[in-house]
Amino acid sequence: MAPKAIVAPSILSADFANLGEECRKTIAQGADWLHVDIMDGHFVPNLTFGPPVVGMIRSHVDKPTENYGKGTFDCHMMIAEPKKWVKNFKKAGCDLYCFHYEAANSSAAESPETTSELRTSPRELIRYIHDNGMLAGIAIKPATKVDVLWDVLDSPHAKERPDMVLVMTVEPGFGGQKFMASELPKVQELRKRYPDLNIEVDGGLGPGTIDQAADAGANVIVAGSAVFGAKDPAEVISLLREAPPDMKRKADAPADRKTPVKKRSKNALTDDEAKARFRKGLFDNKVLSKYTAEYASSTPYKHSVISDLVDDGLLRKVRSEIKANVSFTPKETDIYKIHQSGDLANLDGLDNEALAKLPSLLALRDALYSQTFRDYVSHITGCGPLSGRKTDMAINVYTPGCYLLCHDDVIGSRKVSYILYLTDPDTPWQPEWGGALRLFPTVDREGKDGEVAKTPLPDPVKVIPPAWNQLSFFAVQPGESFHDVEEVYHAASKKELEKNGGRIRMAISGWFHIPQIGEDGWVEGAEEKAARKSGLMQLQGNPDQHDRPQARPVEIEKSESSQESDEIGFEDEADLEFLLKYLSPTYLTPDTIERVAEHFEENFSITLPDILHPKFAAKLRKYVEAEEGKALPEDSETIEKGAWKVARPPHKHRYLYLQPTVSEESPLKELLEVFLPSRQFRVWLQMATRTVVKSHDLTARRFRHGKDYTLATGHEGDARLELNIGLTPTDGWGDEVEDDSDGSDDEAEAPARKGANGKAKANGSSNGKGKGKGKAIDKEIEPKDEIEVGGHEVYMAGDDDSNEDAAIYKSSAEDDNILFFQAAAWNKMTLVLRDSQTLRFVKYVSRAAKGDRWDVSGVYEIEEQDEAPEDENGTSAVGVLDDSEEEFQGFSPDEDSDSD
Ligand SMILES: O=C(CO)[C@@H](O)[C@H](O)COP(=O)(O)O
Ligand SMILES: [Fe+2]
């Protein structure tokens, strides 16, 4: 007889203050059994309860009328001496006593009050449980091999054979842990050998993991947090129950079957059903051959573009459903600015209620992941079998100003990336609106060690504009499949935007994965191997040695620097005169330097407006404005024929830069090569920051609007001092309200401003930072009067958790993480003491900006401070700013600064 499907909610996650009622309710909501976790604080590092509590709750739940019947108390004994408690638990009302194999060779004493020199064994214990009138289960922890069970399962004596095997899919001890798919091969093996066996899985089970467990062959499903944490536990229970019947079919199959169990597709379509959901003729051999040939010869890496993929009527319905039922939330990090469908971040995570509103979307998903279409994609790409179960897709919307910067899409088991565009079918997308998928070429570079690494070049060479019902896809290749989504450009006016249908670039982006456990083509360890390989490729594939610019620290003679640190003030007239040529006089008075130093010491950062002397600043401004007036070549190669170089690789950063020594005379060269490296400025800097500088490394940077950015990176080694002088001559960068120091926190006021607590942050109203409110997309696109143009520099707390979506969602620039923020500005210096964990980035500069973002950036290695100001965590750099920090509001404009 094939084992029946059983759902056993684990009451570990129930309300213990109300346990009897919770148990009664759960059975009434459709549960078959109750899974009762008994923990003794020895076998597992947690305590729950003993026989008295089990006895109390027993009175709230009717006893089962048959073996395995409704109301079975499935006691999961995570205790060190299981034999001692058999009788007590029987008395309390336990029906199935499931001990751990790892605890089975323990005392043979028959009660907790007694001791015994003898040891029991799995076989003996099972017999003993049976003799005491209960069903017997045997459980194994993740570290235990399944092979240890053959001895009991193959015992010639029925009394010594267990009625159930429990395969733990988490480390026992706590509810709410992550499901370990790595344990499923044990289930598969058990099912293969024992088609009739009750196989229970426990730990991390819920709607998102049930399929894998059921596919592997489990029929008893324990779920704690997924049931008791659900708004509607009955719904979850029924969902869990939906999975096992399929397994039942597998269990009915001949026991000696050698092939792995067949995959359980969500809504498996026949070949004809699947084909009917695509455009007519798509599956013709000639058409397939054409796409296959095109794919093979495409550059810079293999990709495919298929127009009119889906049946037009179906896709129109999908679009309407999404518009009516899906809400979008603006999300923004260093690498993207998009609107994400909140709960649809992954369709797999949706509950039944939400799914019911999206029938066409589900029909589309089932078609895309049908065997028929997967075979089609496999044929074109030649990348082998693809999973029909891991249906990884999300809906993203790009409105004007949105983009996704360069990355290679490599994560876990992803095999093919795809984008299916759902732009307005009746207002065709125009390439000049942006939003294209752009592919970057890579070059092989030989490193110092002779190793060859692929690195992407800064300019994309293939541009694929969106189009209604067009599918673009490519095989995910570590270190190779670099691509971005071009900014969707702002329209010149509201009227034009309306005419363009809002320029809403809606698309489904998703991935095909390698086959999962239980599916045809699944290879044990393949997923882990792919993950290891991609991690390695990402580390090795882009070693810093090929990055540009390379750090060029100029060391300061040790004797010279420590001597300077003792000096306070500029005794020498000539030194003062030199500094006065470049610095605003305000910043040269001992009083001001003292105040700057105090502020810096307290906050590890400071912003100094009007830093450069007005006369020098005016000269500089004239130069920068003139440069900006000149047309720049589009491609990096031509640009690099001049003085400016292009920072790369683009999955780390892209901007133009100058490093000393610059050939052409200019005030910028003077700043970079005369003033900033001077001994006099170093003395000033050391006084203003109370540090001792060991080296400096200076770079002038120009971030072209519509092109450039840096992504968040940390740095290695000790805390260092970072200087930045904003040299952006245009306005509209969100810096204008900065002098508003009334402490109010009216965030909607400007694109970027300082928060009331003094902590710098970006505007929550439209920057989103992952906290925006979900809105239907039509509402969201209402054009704002103020356009955010980016270009701000952000320091944020590093995140140790490697987010699953890290390749795209590099860093979640949540407000809470932001430690320091500076909008692009003119003549403003920022100084930040930064530790190695602090991430820093310059936000992509929108094409809507009035001009480019210019600055000079300096990195100073400093001597370790003897009496470093430390916070309570003992750290002394940006990276540990707390909420009490106060932003230095700068100095009020001075009379003698005849500012331009
Ligand atoms: O035995 C255990 C934990 O040791 C389980 O029964 C958990 O209680 C299951 O909880 P979820 O992982 O389903 O939340
Ligand atoms: Fe359990």
Automatic annotation (TrEMBL):
<feature type="compositionally biased region" description="Basic and acidic residues">
    <location>
        <begin position="544"/>
        <end position="561"/>
    </location>
</feature>
<feature type="compositionally biased region" description="Basic and acidic residues">
    <location>
        <begin position="245"/>
        <end position="259"/>
    </location>
</feature>
<keyword id="KW-0539">Nucleus</keyword>
<keyword id="KW-0170">Cobalt</keyword>
<dbReference type="GO" id="GO:0031418">
    <property type="term" value="F:L-ascorbic acid binding"/>
</dbReference>
<dbReference type="GO" id="GO:0005737">
    <property type="term" value="C:cytoplasm"/>
</dbReference>
<dbReference type="Pfam" id="PF13661">
    <property type="entry name" value="2OG-FeII_Oxy_4"/>
</dbReference>
<dbReference type="GO" id="GO:0009896">
    <property type="term" value="P:positive regulation of catabolic process"/>
</dbReference>
<dbReference type="InterPro" id="IPR019601">
    <property type="entry name" value="Oxoglutarate/Fe-dep_Oase_C"/>
</dbReference>
<feature type="compositionally biased region" description="Acidic residues">
    <location>
        <begin position="733"/>
        <end position="749"/>
    </location>
</feature>
<dbReference type="Pfam" id="PF10637">
    <property type="entry name" value="Ofd1_CTDD"/>
</dbReference>
<dbReference type="InterPro" id="IPR043044">
    <property type="entry name" value="TPA1/Ofd1_C"/>
</dbReference>
<feature type="domain" description="Fe2OG dioxygenase">
    <location>
        <begin position="389"/>
        <end position="514"/>
    </location>
</feature>
<dbReference type="InterPro" id="IPR013785">
    <property type="entry name" value="Aldolase_TIM"/>
</dbReference>
<feature type="compositionally biased region" description="Acidic residues">
    <location>
        <begin position="862"/>
        <end position="873"/>
    </location>
</feature>
<feature type="region of interest" description="Disordered">
    <location>
        <begin position="245"/>
        <end position="269"/>
    </location>
</feature>
<keyword id="KW-0479">Metal-binding</keyword>
<dbReference type="GO" id="GO:0005975">
    <property type="term" value="P:carbohydrate metabolic process"/>
</dbReference>
<dbReference type="GO" id="GO:0005506">
    <property type="term" value="F:iron ion binding"/>
</dbReference>
<dbReference type="GO" id="GO:0010604">
    <property type="term" value="P:positive regulation of macromolecule metabolic process"/>
</dbReference>
<feature type="compositionally biased region" description="Acidic residues">
    <location>
        <begin position="882"/>
        <end position="900"/>
    </location>
</feature>
<dbReference type="GO" id="GO:0004750">
    <property type="term" value="F:D-ribulose-phosphate 3-epimerase activity"/>
</dbReference>
<keyword id="KW-0847">Vitamin C</keyword>
<comment type="similarity">
    <text>Belongs to the ribulose-phosphate 3-epimerase family.</text>
</comment>
<dbReference type="InterPro" id="IPR026019">
    <property type="entry name" value="Ribul_P_3_epim"/>
</dbReference>
<feature type="region of interest" description="Disordered">
    <location>
        <begin position="722"/>
        <end position="781"/>
    </location>
</feature>
<dbReference type="InterPro" id="IPR039558">
    <property type="entry name" value="TPA1/OFD1_N"/>
</dbReference>
<feature type="compositionally biased region" description="Low complexity">
    <location>
        <begin position="754"/>
        <end position="768"/>
    </location>
</feature>
<dbReference type="InterPro" id="IPR006620">
    <property type="entry name" value="Pro_4_hyd_alph"/>
</dbReference>
<dbReference type="GO" id="GO:0031543">
    <property type="term" value="F:peptidyl-proline dioxygenase activity"/>
</dbReference>
<keyword id="KW-0413">Isomerase</keyword>
<protein>
    <recommendedName>
        <fullName>Ribulose-phosphate 3-epimerase</fullName>
        <ecNumber>5.1.3.1</ecNumber>
    </recommendedName>
</protein>
<dbReference type="InterPro" id="IPR005123">
    <property type="entry name" value="Oxoglu/Fe-dep_dioxygenase_dom"/>
</dbReference>
<comment type="pathway">
    <text>Carbohydrate degradation; pentose phosphate pathway; D-xylulose 5-phosphate from D-ribulose 5-phosphate (non-oxidative stage): step 1/1.</text>
</comment>
<dbReference type="InterPro" id="IPR011060">
    <property type="entry name" value="RibuloseP-bd_barrel"/>
</dbReference>
<dbReference type="GO" id="GO:0006098">
    <property type="term" value="P:pentose-phosphate shunt"/>
</dbReference>
<feature type="region of interest" description="Disordered">
    <location>
        <begin position="538"/>
        <end position="568"/>
    </location>
</feature>
<keyword id="KW-0223">Dioxygenase</keyword>
<comment type="similarity">
    <text>Belongs to the TPA1 family.</text>
</comment>
<dbReference type="Pfam" id="PF00834">
    <property type="entry name" value="Ribul_P_3_epim"/>
</dbReference>
<dbReference type="GO" id="GO:0006449">
    <property type="term" value="P:regulation of translational termination"/>
</dbReference>
<keyword id="KW-0560">Oxidoreductase</keyword>
